[in-house]
């Protein structure tokens, strides 16, 4: 069992390679559609998803509750998909969220700009100028998205275990290299401990999403261990603490909630 994350430049054959690997391994293929469906199941509207997905948020969007809800639910979805193993996660910052998870192969697929332009001209039917603009916009959006939501450099090769340049490499060759890597001992480590850790991480993110609706509570610490939740922080009103506890308790997967909350000190 393994987890594979694939980050790719537009026009680099990344989507085709990721799909080919998933087909060869019979792994679940998680792309934008599946992530969007996962967020929709949590009540996050498609229109809002499209506003944030794969883009750098504007200044006003960065300050919005919807932006906070988006990133918490996105993280929860990726952790949920990853905990089952045997999965390929395409984009969406998987390489950042799962960078320290054992058994995760993080792949980056790139190509020279001229190759990407030619690919888009062949596949999309655009002229050269349109393809150049499309690549510039897509690279800017992808880089901005990763920087804004995960605080990492999209192009930092140290974030990846395997970087493939498809300048002269076919989909089949790239697929074979990924298959060889993922079948090595380094990426075969899976355990119940890892699954439980990912489940706790997913639950923590869903709790954070619910807490966005409690602006009067300042969370200082959250701990989640196999469904047992401990929250520490400050609240404006005593009854808000109980309301928050009930909201967190209603989240699927939460078994128990311990509130270690103090009221804000009175000011004169």
Topology (SSEs and partners):
Elements: E1 3-8, H1 14-25, E2 28-30, H2 32-40, H3 46-52, H4 59-62, H5 65-83, E3 87-90, H6 94-97, E4 104-110, H7 113-124, H8 128-150, E5 162-165, H9 171-182, H10 192-211, E6 217-225, E7 228-235, H11 238-249, E8 256-263
Helix pairs in contact: 1-9, 5-10, 7-8
Give a structural overview:
- It is a single chain.
- The protein is α/β, with parallel strands linked by helices and 268 residues long.
- The protein has two domains: 3-187, P-loop containing nucleotide triphosphate hydrolases (Rossmann fold, 3-Layer(aba) Sandwich), CATH 3.40.50.300; 214-263, Fe-S cluster assembly (FSCA) (GMP Synthetase, Chain A, domain 3).
- It is built from eleven helices and eight strands.
- The strands form two sheets. The protein has a five-stranded parallel β-sheet with strand order 2-3-1-4-5, sandwiched between helices. A three-stranded mixed β-sheet has the order 6-7-8.
- The N and C termini lie far apart (60 Å).
- The relative contact order is 0.15.
Overall pLDDT confidence: 92
CA distance, first residue to last residue: 60 Å
Strand percentage = 15-25%
Strand order of the largest sheet: 2-3-1-4-5
Low-confidence stretches: none
Quick structural overview:
With 268 residues, this protein is of the alpha/beta class.
Provide the descriptors you would attach to this structure in a database record.
GMP Synthetase, Chain A, domain 3; 268 residues; single chain; five-stranded parallel β-sheet; Rossmann fold; alpha/beta; three-stranded mixed β-sheet; 11 helices
